[in-house]
Amino acid sequence: MRVLVVEDEPKMANLIERALVREGYAVDVARDGAEALWAAGETDYDAIVLDAMIPPPDGFEVCRRIRAGGGWSPLLMLTARDGVDDRVRGLDAGADDYLTKPFAFSELLARLRALTRRPLGARPVALAVGDLVLDRARHHARRGGDAIDLSPKEFSLLELFMSRPGEVLTRSQILDHVWDFAYDGASNVVDVYVGYLRRKLGTDDLETVRGVGYRLRVPKP
User: Fold this and answer.
1) Torsion angle defined by CA atoms of residues 10, 13, 19 and 24, in that order, rounded to the nearest 10 degrees
2) E-strand spans in the chain?
């Protein structure tokens, strides 16, 4: 999953980014409202973590503009103020949830998991392709009755393939969704992780499309 973190305080932004990366998220960071609006307009994020008090436009206005522009990524607003009026203001601006600073990172992660598993259009809690099932809510994968032990990055990679079964995904698309914009495009990290997944799935689910990328085979009925 790809998440946009909007936070102007460098130490806090770094802590949130590191916590999310450890959980397997690809993370982009914006430092002010203008940068946040640009990023949200360029990328369809799986979730946005937005601090309310950022350099202008502030988080409330950023949220309003994202929603007005048709952006419906799940949005978690952060604030150092715990007043009811601020919470109402954030929710009225279009935020999906609200978290007051200081907070435990375990709660931030739990709230993000809850937001991203809500049924927003074509975003089911569980993905199924043949006998392969990936449960976003419980963060595990199974083939038939057998659990598949996946690292956070392997889980994100499998989630991407299972959300677009039968579709050929280029290495650039995979890097953009599972890693981040700054990742070295010349790296063979995609091929390495596809190899890891192939060994754990134990079948030929992931097909190499020579010169293009990879796709998840859809079993014939």
Assistant:
1) -120
2) 2-6, 26-30, 47-51, 75-79, 97-100, 126-129, 132-135, 140-143, 146-148, 169-170, 206-209, 213-216
pTM above 0.85, yes or no: no
CA distances from 11 to 14, 17, 75, 119, 167 (A): 5, 10, 21, 33, 39
Higher pLDDT, 139 or 217: 217
Range 98-118 burial, b when 16+ CB lie within 10 A, else e: bbeeeeeeeebeebbbebbbe
- Cβ neighbors of 51 (< 8 A, separation 6 or more) are 6, 7, 8, 9, 12, 59, 77, 78, 79
Over residues 194-201, the mean pLDDT reads 92
Q: Is the pLDDT of residue 178 over 70?
A: yes
